[in-house]
Structure formats: C-alpha cells, structure tokens
C-alpha cells in the first residue's frame, strides 16, 4: 500500500514539475499573432487547398496581414471571402475573376484511336510508363484514368466516357488537378471565359485526323470568323485570348470538328 501511495506521490510531483516547465516555456517562446492575421484566418474558407499559392489558410492569412498578399486569393471562398478580408484589412474589395479547371481534350471513347487496351493500375502515371505515350495514339490526349479526379477535394472533376470533365459549379480553381496530370494538359482558365477549344494537340491536321475524329486540325476557320481577333491558330492549335474574346460563339459555329466549347450553350 505504501509503495502505491509513494508511486502516486512521485507521479504527482513529476506531473506538477513538468506542467510548470511547459507553462514557463510557453511564456518564453510565445509568439504574438497579429490580430488581423487571426481575423483573416477566421473568415477564410478553411479548405487548405493551396489554390492561393500559399501553404494553407494559415500561411495565406499571415501573408495578407503582413501586406504581402492580395485579399482576393482565397479561391475556395471567392468574392464573398475577398470582400470580408478586404474589410478586415481596410482596403477596397477587388476580387479577381475566378479561375476554374478545364481539360482541353475531346478524345473520349470511340473518338481517339488507341495504341492498345490498357489493363494495368488505374493510374494515369502508370499508363505513361509504356513509352511515355499512354494507351492513346494522340500523345496530347487525356488518359482518363482519374488522377485528377482523385486529387480534387471538391468533387469537381470526374472521368466521363474516358475523358476528365470539370463541374464548374464546384471547382474552386485550386490547381490540384493541374499538378497531378502527367500529360500537363489540364489548365486553369477564367470562369468568365465563355469559349475555349477542347483540344491540346499540336500535331499537323493530317496527323490529327488519323488518331482522333475530334481533334483540332488547325484549319483556321475559327480565326477567320472571329470578329474580335480573339482566336488564333498557333503551332497547329486554336487558342483564345480571354482579354479579347467577346463570347459571340461564331468560332464554335464554324469549327468543322465541333471541338470549340461554348460554356453557356
């Protein structure tokens, strides 16, 4: 009995001693947090997605409080959070155009020709081990094994009929899908951009026609039809300048391959 009581006494003394040491250490090493930083952190979306370009919400809040980051970089929170952060920092709310992911590829099942039927791990990177070209003849095509879908924390990316597609209503523009794509074809585009070619191939038209029935062949009809000079063919692929595009949709109407996506149609 005495042994038990002695053990409890020793443990109690040690516990008190360690507690006192920890309390002392916390005071010695305490770092004051800027009240604005705490306030900014409180209103952020809390997704820790990294879409702002900083290491999580804490890192972004610290940068904003120091004046090193703009108030509109919380992609998950959008304009509403930008306005709250701006109010805390005492500056004008000027939310930038939200960015959303887009997969410029139309090579779904039955459209893009295959080199072979892939039966390995459900992983795009694994499929690239076969000569670095995956299972489709088009070297620019979406592999469609879902690495981007698994990387997305917001259920905004899904593989449909062999091609990754984006739900723009859920996408926050964090860029996780962009980073995980081994083909490097997933991109972030302004949400306000209405028109965008759904192809990534820089091969000449004749080559494209042999490997995909829906790839851009660089015919330049879209370029000639655009009244704003917003779409041009560069390196055999049509590209849209978001600063010039007026969203008229004429390029989509004349495209013989029907691969220019009109997000409002």
Shape verdict: flat
Looking at the chains present, what oligomeric state does this protein adopt? Answer: single chain
Strand order of the largest sheet: 1-4
CATH 2nd-level architecture of the largest domain: 2-Layer Sandwich
Given as residue ranges, the uncertain stretches (5+ residues, pLDDT < 50) are: none
CATH class of the largest domain: Alpha Beta
Question: Radius of gyration over alpha carbons?
Answer: 26 Å
Distance between the termini: 83 Å
Note the total helix count: 10
Q: Characterize the main sheet.
A: 2 strands, antiparallel
- Specify the structural class: alpha+beta
Number of spatially distinct domains: 3
Helicity, in percent?
25-40%
Q: Summarize model confidence as the mean pLDDT.
A: 86
């Amino acid at each position: 009995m005495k042994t038990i009581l002695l053990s409890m006494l020793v443990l109690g003394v040690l516990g008190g001693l360690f507690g006192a040491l920890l309390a002392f250490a916390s005071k010695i090493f305490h770092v004051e947090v800027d009240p604005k930083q705490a306030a900014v952190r409180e209103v952020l979306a809390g997704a820790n997605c990294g879409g702002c370009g900083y290491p999580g919400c804490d890192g972004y809040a610290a940068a904003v409080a120091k004046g090193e980051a703009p108030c509109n970089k919380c992609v998950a929170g959008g304009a509403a959070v930008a306005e709250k952060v701006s109010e805390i920092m005492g500056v004008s709310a000027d939310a930038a155009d939200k960015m959303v992911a887009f997969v410029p590829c139309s090579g779904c099942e039955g459209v893009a020709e295959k080199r072979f039927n892939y039966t390995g791990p459900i992983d795009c990177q694994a499929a690239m081990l076969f000569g670095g070209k995956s299972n489709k003849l088009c070297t620019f095509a979406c592999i469609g094994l879902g690495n981007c879908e698994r990387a997305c924390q917001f259920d905004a990316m899904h593989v449909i009929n062999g091609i990754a597609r984006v739900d723009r209503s859920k996408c926050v523009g964090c860029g996780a899908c962009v980073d995980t794509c081994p083909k490097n074809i997933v991109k972030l585009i302004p949400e306000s951009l209405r028109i965008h070619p759904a192809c990534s191939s820089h091969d000449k038209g004749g080559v494209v026609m042999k490997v995909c029935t829906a790839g851009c062949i660089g015919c330049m009809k879209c370029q000639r039809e655009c009244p704003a000079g917003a779409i041009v063919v560069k390196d055999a692929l049509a590209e849209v300048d978001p600063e010039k595009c007026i969203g008229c949709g004429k390029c989509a109407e004349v495209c013989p391959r029907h691969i220019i996506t009109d997000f409002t149609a």
